[in-house]
């Protein structure tokens, strides 16, 4: 999915910091001019990959990449 790949690339390049909040579903759907359901699928895909975590009522946040937490 293009949206998920775009956001994943931003995270991997460090353009979205660990702990930062992604724009809301509505903001992302307006930005990409797609339905909110499309954005939800992209966020779910990113969450399954361990890149973000959705917190009900708070937003979706960038997570620390897997494997890096154990190196500290």
Rg value: 12 Å
Q: What does the main sheet amount to?
A: 2 strands, antiparallel
Which residue ranges are poorly predicted, with pLDDT under 50 across at least 5 consecutive positions? none
Kindly state the percentage of residues in helix: 40-55%
Order of SSEs, N→C?
A: HHHEE
Distance N to C terminus: 32 Å
Report the average pLDDT across residues.
91
Which class best fits the helix and strand makeup? Answer: alpha+beta
Quickly count the helices: 3
Shape: globular
Structure description:
The protein has three helices and two strands, in the order H-H-H-E-E. It is α+β, with helices and mostly antiparallel strands. Strand 1 (52-55) and strand 2 (59-62) form a beta hairpin. Helix 1 packs across helix 3 and helix 2 (25-32) crosses helix 3 (36-48). The model has no long low-confidence stretch (mean pLDDT 91).
